Amino acid sequence: MKHPHFFGYGSLVNRNTHAFTPIHLSQITGWRRIWRRAPNRPAAFLSVIADSSAQIDGVIAPVPNDDWVALDAREYSYDRIAVTDLVQHTAADVRDISIYAIPPDTSARPDADHPILLSYVDAVLQGYLREFGEAGATRFIETTEGWDTPVRNDRAAPIYPRAQTLSVQERTLVDDMLATARAKVIS
What we know:
The protein is α/β, with parallel strands linked by helices. 24% of the residues lie in helices and 33% in strands. The chain has one domain (3-186): Gamma-glutamyl cyclotransferase-like (Hypothetical upf0131 protein ytfp, Roll).
């Protein structure tokens, strides 16, 4: 039986942030990641925008019980967009695939009042390190726009609701990658 799937390109890559199974590594063409903030969220999150020359890594997973309601609630502020023909994957039970994106006309660049949260970055990069290895995490950094906006260091008291604890090695890799990207980490 075939099921609808979603393409995850941020925290959904980290298996510890959800219970969606099975997860299949995948790539999507025609979209690139960008840090954006939505008017009804206090911090910036990842989104995607159309770009015919781009390709990003991510995962697909079936929508629980073929019902989008719970996933749409998790991804509030985002629009769900059909992308079935743009995703390369090895899953056999796929009916269609959608991706979530913050609508460009309702979003803005992160700023000091709406920064990227380091606890969110940690959860995302931990997922990429575990699923795609160090090379995949590096590709994530390189294929994501917006590292020149503020990243609030909230590791001591994580604001992101699905924050993860990183190993010393993961934390060192994340910090090194952010330094290489010249991310503006602030207290």
